[in-house]
Amino acid sequence: MKRSEINAALKEMEGCIREHRFELPPFCSFTPEEWKTKGHEYDEIRDNMLGWDITDYGLGDFKKVGFSLITLRNGNLKMDKYTKTYAEKLLYLNEKQMATMHFHWNKMEDIINRGGGNVLIRVYNSTADGRFDDTDVTVHQDGREYAVPAGTQVRLRPGESITVYPYMYHDFTVEAGTGAVLLGEVSMCNDDENDNRFYEPMGRFPEIEEDEPPYRLLCNEYPAAAGAVR
């Protein structure tokens, strides 16, 4: 992706967040220059990859496959100093974007429609060898439990949510004609390096072509802490 494309995507997400009156923590507004001055008091952000994020799954077609997100809080299963057992994210998709089919080995999560259009979550159970299972999927949606056939798209209108369990395949798209959507995710600790199982092998972070200065640093771009060595 070009840096200009990333900058535009982040600003578009910011606009949606303002529209729905969701307030962000201060670190989300740090400029790249400000990050150079931040010391070890912000290690939790660096170590746990909090902040702005973009994924195009390494496919290079962000306008169709991928989305923008912010990790607001997260624990860390690899570092004992961080004892949080939970994570929270915001995700933004416009009408033409989708997130690809995947499950998590360990993470349970609630995906919440925070505002905008309707999101469609397609669900499958997984077989032991990682294929789609043709059995009915048990859905937990805002305190209601029910079953749907494999491959069903569960519609979430603003305010609605679904619980996604480990080994439950899911992808999501925006229902045509309903507009861009702001999603929340409340989950167990997030570990993108080890806990994602994509149905089709793919990457996570984009390769960036630097055609203009960054508007915000992404969560995998922070400079080392300023000041004394740990």
Automatic annotation (TrEMBL):
Classification via CDD domains: cupin_EcSI (cd20309)
Enzymatic reactions: D-lyxose = D-xylulose
InterPro entries attached to this UniProt entry: D-lyxose_isomer, EcSI_cupin, RmlC-like_jellyroll
Cofactor dependency: Mn(2+)
E.C. code: 5.3.1.15
Record keywords, A-Z: Carbohydrate metabolism, Isomerase, Manganese, Metal-binding
GO molecular function per UniProt: D-lyxose ketol-isomerase activity; metal ion binding
Segments passing through the bilayer: none
Recorded family membership: Belongs to the D-lyxose ketol-isomerase family.
Name under which the protein is recorded: D-lyxose ketol-isomerase
Native species: Wansuia hejianensis
Upper taxonomic lineage: Bacteria, Bacillati, Bacillota, Clostridia, Lachnospirales
